[in-house]
Write a structure and sequence with these properties.
The complex is a heterodimer of chains A (229) and B (794).
Chain A: E1 2-12, E2 17-28, E3 33-37, H1 44-51, E4 59-64, E5 67-68, H2 74-81, E6 85-88, H3 100-110, H4 115-128, H5 144-156, E7 162-166, H6 174-189, E8 193-197, H7 201-204, E9 209-214, E10 217-223
Helix pairs in contact in A: 3-4, 3-5, 4-5, 5-6
Chain B: H1 2-15, H2 17-45, E1 57-65, E2 71-74, E3 77-78, H3 81-88, E4 92-107, E5 110-119, H4 123-126, E6 131-134, E7 145-148, H5 150-157, E8 166-169, E9 172-180, E10 193-196, E11 214-222, H6 228-242, E12 251-257, H7 261-264, H8 277-318, H9 323-360, H10 372-398, H11 402-405, H12 417-450, E13 460-464, H13 471-482, E14 487-493, E15 504-509, E16 518-524, H14 529-532, E17 537-540, H15 550-553, E18 554-558, H16 559-565, E19 574-577, E20 585-593, E21 608-611, E22 619-624, H17 629-643, E23 651-653, H18 654-660, H19 663-697, H20 699-707, H21 712-746, H22 757-784, H23 787-791
Parallel strand pairs in B: 5-10, 7-9, 16-21, 18-20
Antiparallel strand pairs in B: 1-2, 1-11, 1-12, 3-11, 4-5, 4-8, 4-11, 6-9, 7-10, 8-9, 13-22, 13-23, 14-22, 15-16, 15-19, 17-20, 18-21, 19-20
Helix pairs in contact in B: 1-9, 2-8, 2-9, 2-10, 2-19, 8-10, 8-12, 8-19, 9-10, 12-19, 12-21, 12-22, 19-20, 19-22, 21-22
The chains are: A alpha/beta (229), B alpha+beta (794).
Chain lengths: 229, 794
């Protein structure tokens, strides 16, 4: 599903050049659950952004679903992203002015789906996350765990093949964190590919494979016990 | 999708109440002012256009080269010209003369002094006047026929139809042949009654056949498609042929379009209301500036607001929104706000119009259904403001990079600082410009009010002389009035000083001007007039009640006339009055009065000749002693009523009337006052918005500074200084601009006072103070905040 070869990402300001990623090679197959770990500033989020087509690499090749997408315009990336990739953030990133239902419905709007279909899919996604009873609430009226469940519902509503999660439990207490991780594991069992950035070894235990990054390099790749690809 | 945008927009607006208020209020004021000015301009531009042929009507004007070489454009012309022009030029379809006069008009027991305009019968072919009673057909074709205005008809006949009834005008019978319908509000000129020109003979009107005496108004109706240029060029042949070769250089008649008279005319002897078109330009410019300021406010606040909404933008992008869709979304939001604002703006206009109509004596209305242009303006302003003001924030915000904003990095993507700087500077330039302008206008108006006009004006009760014109009856009236305690002086005259002088005559003074003569203002006053108005005699003597010859052949002139005529010894000199076909008449100068402002302060003091002709005493002035005015005026009213066959006479106080001479200036002062206030308000709103966003932006900096030991006062200073500096730059731009424009405006007055330093210093202090108060609250709040709050936010 994902092949990255010699990925390089350099951020430059007027005076300094920072290399966030350097010669990163990664391959992720469909149905995998991969965790990316590493200390702050090691390039985890940069890698996730490139995988999620939110950013272009400075150098190297990146193939997503068989397309070479290393150098695409913003519009083309958006086109490919829609419906294929779902995002989950540490800070949930729900739109405060929209209700739970409207937040979940939003990706479908950008896919140009009609009202009836949107309603059906959004409700199904909410049902799956057991959030239907909160459909008319605004994000700020929910607990952190509930907000993240809504965010997951939004990530899966369009049947994304890939879910990218950036420290999905970072803002949650351990109970709610576990809950979220169970949901992700379930999604993975149902066939969704998941790539998750995390600081937590506990969360990483849910993954099949853990990639360790350090200063922009991949240092180790471990297969977790009990998982076989 | 549109529904989603709308929903988000409305929720955002209701959530960000402060932001919505600042933006809506600012835009609503700006839009309201612009729409208000659209209506006023439309009203002024359409003045007199209700006449069906208005575009083909021209006033016959003349550029007269005076003895001293100066050229005077006059709106009056000699009586025989119009008709002769019509005979000679086929493209002139109709020509009508208008001669203003007044007389004692009597019906039964009712006698009132009334203004009467003598007109040629073709008047109804030229102007469109609907009739209430009777018809325009042949209404003034016979001598001694009269058409009344509705007002005059009511004065004499209440609600009866007077057609066929007879009015006595100066004891001559006139048959009422019609009554005009109510005057159209957009008429720049008016009549009281129209009498047929054929009623006049040479005794009534000595200059009737004089080809050189400019003293009445001639309006021409031209054929469709007539070539004005060619016509005007051929006028010199007309002068050569009819007036004389030697007058070709002296008289250069031209045609002034009737439609343009209201806004563009600057002719001597205007009998119509006029408005200097530059006022329309200035106010339109101010209106647009205010709207512009409100728009920059909007742009700035929306951009600053964008930082708060960066996350939403990021999420939308991650979920697959194209840039175009986001641009569209933000423009849609701006449009929604702009619709909201225009609704409030339209309500503003509705509220402002009655106030304006009252002070300006206009009747501007918002007739939505019959005024498509206004509706179009409303729509245009919404679209223009919505798209223009919405575009920048839309493009700015939609360019946010989701990777950055979702990490909370949005502060680095705050609005461009030049935009903020421009905003604050522009706003305060305009605000300061308006403060200085309006203070200077007020200054000038109070200067006028306080200026010594050279004659007494306080406690001066002015009325008409009721139905009497003989010397005996005047003396009787004087005697009765003097019996009322509180009446200190009484005099009769043709005019009241300080008011527009109606009468100018061609006279031929001894000396250089003997040959060509000169058009001179003149009054007729009785021997008590000068004393009563405290107008000083500098040479010679006043008129005397004991010298019968004074009313026939003596005159008093003012100093300006002495200078004009170039006389060293004015007393005993003669001035000649002559009309073609009549015996010339000599007048001897018996006295010289000190110059006084017999006209408004727009003009400098012109030559004036005082006659003492009792047949021209139309006005009665009574000087009252400082007493309780209410019962006194009532008592005088009673006396005048008995002399007027039991009909109450009108009266006014000179001081009030003189103040009315400056209606236009007062309206402008009033409008400027409001505009200044509103501009300051919008500017402060903008400043408030900006400061609050700056404070949010610099929250962390403030926190760090506080932790490091910065004092509250130091922090407030640091936060405010930049803004105050911008306000000061605004002053440096606005003040000279105001000075320049005000100096131009003051040129319309012959007597004026330049705005002094206190006005400029005052404007600077007021603005700085208001700006500081606006900034102060936010900065103090920010400085007092607990630094832990702002620092842990990382």
């Amino acid at each position: 599903m994902i092949q990255a070869k010699s990925l390089k990402k350099v951020y430059s300001t007027e005076e300094v050049e920072t290399t966030a990623l350097n010669s990163v090679n990664i391959e992720i197959k469909e149905g995998e659950f991969v965790a990316i770990m590493g200390p702050s500033g090691c390039g985890k989020s940069t890698l996730l952004n490139i995988m999620g087509l939110l950013d272009n690499p400075s150098d190297g090749e990146y193939h997503f679903l068989g397309h070479d997408v290393s150098n695409r315009t913003e519009r083309e990336r958006a086109q490919l992203r829609k419906g294929n990739i779902g995002f989950i953030f540490q800070s949930f990133n729900l739109i405060d002015e929209l209700t739970v239902f409207e937040n979940v419905e939003l990706p479908l709007l950008y896919l140009g789906m009609d009202t009836a279909e949107r309603k059906e899919k959004a409700e199904a996604a909410l049902e799956r996350m057991s959030m239907m009873h909160r459909r008319n609430h605004f994000p700020q009226q929910l607990s952190g765990g509930q907000q993240q469940r809504v965010a997951i519902a939004r990530a899966v509503v369009a049947n994304a093949k890939l879910i990218l999660a950036d420290e999905p439990t970072g803002n949650l207490d351990s109970d709610h964190g576990n809950e979220v991780m169970k949901v992700l594991a379930e999604l993975n069992e149902q066939g969704t590919t998941i790539v998750m950035v995390t600081h937590s070894p506990h969360d990483a235990d849910y993954a099949m494979r853990v990639i360790h990054l350090f200063d922009g390099h991949v240092v180790t790749e471990n297969m977790q016990e009990g998982f076989h690809v | 999708m549109l529904k989603n945008y709308l929903k988000i927009a409305l929720r955002n607006l209701s959530k960000q109440k402060g932001y919505t208020f600042i933006n809506t209020a600012g835009l609503a004021i700006g839009m309201g002012i612009c729409l208000f000015l659209v209506l006023l301009t439309q009203y002024a531009v359409n003045m007199d256009k209700h006449h069906e042929n208005s575009d083909r009507i021209y006033l016959l004007a003349d550029a007269i080269t005076q003895q001293n070489g100066n050229v005077l454009d006059v709106g009056i012309s000699p009586s025989p010209w119009g008709n002769q022009l019509k005979l000679e030029y086929p493209e002139i379809e109709e020509s009508v003369r208008l001669l203003d006069n007044s007389g004692n008009v009597r019906y039964g027991e009712k006698i009132l002094r009334q203004g009467i305009t003598y007109v040629d019968e073709g008047i109804f072919n030229v102007f469109t006047y609907p009739f209430k009673y009777g018809s325009s057909e042949g209404a003034l074709s016979r001598p001694n026929t009269i058409v009344l205005t509705e007002d005059m008809s009511i004065r004499y006949f209440a609600n009866e139809n007077p057609v066929g009834k007879t009015l006595l005008v100066n004891d001559e019978a006139f048959e009422v042949t019609g009554v005009l319908a109510k005057k159209h509000p957009q008429s720049s000129f008016y009549y009281n009654a129209l009498a047929s020109f054929k009623s006049l003979d040479e005794n009534d009107y000595p200059a009737m056949n004089d080809w050189r005496s400019h003293n009445l108004y001639t309006y021409l109706l031209l054929q469709e498609g007539a070539n004005i240029e060619n016509l005007q060029v051929s006028f010199s042949d007309f002068i050569a042929k009819n007036v004389g070769e030697e007058y070709v250089d002296r008289y250069r008649p031209f045609l002034a379009n009737f439609e343009d008279l209201y806004l563009y005319s600057n002719l001597y002897g205007e009998r119509w209301d006029s408005l200097d078109v530059s006022y329309l330009y200035i106010f339109s410019a101010i209106g647009l500036l205010i709207l512009f300021i409100a728009c920059i406010n909007f742009i700035n606040l929306a951009t600053a607001q964008g930082m708060k909404r960066a996350r939403e933008i990021g999420v939308r992008k991650v979920l697959g929104a194209y840039k175009k869709q986001l641009v569209f979304q933000f423009i849609a939001e701006a449009l929604i706000l702009s619709v909201l604002a225009v609704i409030i703006g339209v309500v503003f206009v509705e509220l402002a119009l009655p106030w304006f109509n009252d002070i300006a004596e206009w009747s501007v209305t918002t007739n939505y259904l019959s005024n498509p242009f206004y509706l179009f303006s409303i729509a245009a302003i919404v679209l223009l403001v919505g798209t223009l003001a919405g575009a920048y924030p839309a493009f700015f915000m939609s360019a946010f990079r989701p990777v950055k904003v979702l990490k909370g990095d949005q502060a680095s993507e705050s609005g461009k600082s030049w935009l903020k700087t421009t905003l604050v500077v522009t706003q305060f330039s305009v605000a300061i410009f308006l403060i200085i302008s309006s203070a200077s206008v007020e200054n000038q108006l109070s200067f006028i009010k306080d200026k010594d006009l050279g004659f007494e004006q306080s406690d001066m009760y002015i009325s008409s002389i009721p139905g009497i014109s003989t010397k005996q009856s005047m003396e009787t009236l004087r005697g009765v009035l003097f019996k009322i305690p509180g009446v200190s002086e009484v005099s009769f005259s043709s005019n009241i000083p300080g008011e527009e002088s109606g009468s100018r005559t061609q006279l031929y003074p001894e000396g250089d001007l003997q040959e060509g003569g000169v058009l001179i203002n003149n009054y007729s006053v009785d021997p008590y007039f000068l004393t009563q108005f405290e107008i000083d005699l500098v040479q010679g003597r006043d008129f005397s009640i004991d010298l019968a010859s004074d009313s026939i052949s003596s005159i008093i002139i003012n100093e300006a006339a002495v200078r004009k005529f170039g006389w060293e010894e004015p007393i005993g000199r003669t001035i000649n009055q002559r009309f073609e076909g009549k015996d010339p008449k000599d007048y001897v100068v018996v006295g010289v009065v000190k110059d006084f402002h017999f006209e408004t302060l727009h003009t400098s003091i012109q030559p004036l000749i005082l006659f003492s002709d009792p047949s021209r005493y139309f006005d009665l002035s009574i000087k009252l002693r400082n007493a309780d005015l209410e019962p006194l005026t009532a008592q005088i009213g009673e006396v005048l009523k008995t002399f007027n066959n039991g009909i109450p006479t009108w009266h006014y106080f000179l001081e009030d009337d003189l103040a009315d001479e400056y209606t236009t200036e007062n309206v402008i002062a009033e409008m400027l006052r409001y505009f200044t206030f509103l501009t300051l308000f919008i500017a402060c709103l903008g400043l408030l918005g900006l400061v609050s966003f700056t404070v949010i932006n610099r929250k962390k900096e403030i926190g760090i500074r506080k932790v490091l030991g910065a004092s509250i006062i130091g922090l407030v200073q640091a936060l405010s200084f930049n803004f105050i500096k911008l306000v000061f730059i605004g002053f440096l731009i606005g003040a000279p601009l105001a000075y320049f424009l005000i100096s131009e405006w003051l040129k319309s007055f012959a007597y004026s006072v330049a705005p002094g330093i206190p006005i400029f210093v005052g404007a600077a202090i007021i603005t700085m103070l208001i700006a500081f108060l606006t900034i102060g609250y936010q900065t103090v709040k920010a400085a007092l905040a607990n630094p832990i709050e702002s620092l842990k936010n990382e």
